[in-house]
Amino acid sequence: MINRWSFYIGIVMIVGFISSAFKPSENSNNKRFYVSEKEELLYQFPSQKPSDYIGHSLPFIGKHFIGFKEAIGIRESQGQYHLVNSYGYMGKYQFGSSALRFFGIKSNSTFLNSPQLQEKAFVALVKFNKYKLQDVIEQFRGKTIDGVRVTESGILAAAHLGGAGSIRKYLKSYGNKSCKDGYGTTVKSYLKQFGGYETHNIIADSSPKIY
């Protein structure tokens, strides 16, 4: 009789021990998973290594803003943060020195060596271009110009390539005044290639802050 009770007690103790191993731990005690309310999550989706982007079209990030941002980066520089082209444009999104100064970035070297700063600068530029082009977006979004359906993201991408004035001139002329960069890339090609992305959540801002 005693052996039987010992057997049952042993079974209960084993089950209890095993079950305790699956109890969730407190997040605040687990430094690998805990993020405080004051801490900012900064990441480059899906990888922090620019080399992981080279040669990839990144179809898995879809039409969300992160997809728009990464598609622009791939088109501009193959996602290379340290790239400087023959015209002196820098980084993943190919910023010129004047644009950097506008956003308060005084050091080209600091910019080139900070992926985080480059990501923030891109978002700031999109916000600023959206502010400058609000009337154009409202007027032409949904229309077809020169065989291309106009979307907000397409306008913002074209503004990134040639400036807000270039895409404004192109749309106001209904495609008759073609604009292109030093390598021959047209605003029309960006208007088409980057159309249909989710940019409506980006808030237009006349003076976006980076720091």
Give a summary of the structure in a few sentences:
The protein has 9 helices and 2 strands.
Structural summary, described in words:
The chain is mainly alpha-helical and 211 residues long. It contains nine helices and two strands. A hairpin with a 2-residue loop joins strand 1 and strand 2. Helix 5 crosses helix 7, helix 7 packs across helix 8 and helix 7 runs antiparallel to helix 9.
Task: Note the main attributes of this structure.
211 residues, mainly alpha, 9 helices, 45% helix
Largest sheet: 2 strands, antiparallel
- Listing every helix as H and every strand as E from the N terminus to the C terminus, the arrangement reads HHHHHHEEHHH
Strand order of the largest sheet: 1-2
Task: Report the count of strand segments.
Answer: 2
Query: Which band does the percent of strand residues land in?
Result: under 5%
What's the overall geometry? globular
Radius of gyration: 25 Å
Number of helices: 9
Structural class: mainly alpha
Q: Helices and strands in order, then pairings?
A:
Elements (H helix, E strand, L loop, with lengths): L1 H19 L44 H13 L19 H6 L5 H5 L2 H18 L1 H7 L3 E2 L2 E2 L2 H11 L1 H9 L14 H7 L18
Antiparallel strand pairs: 1-2
Helix pairs in contact: 5-7, 7-8, 7-9
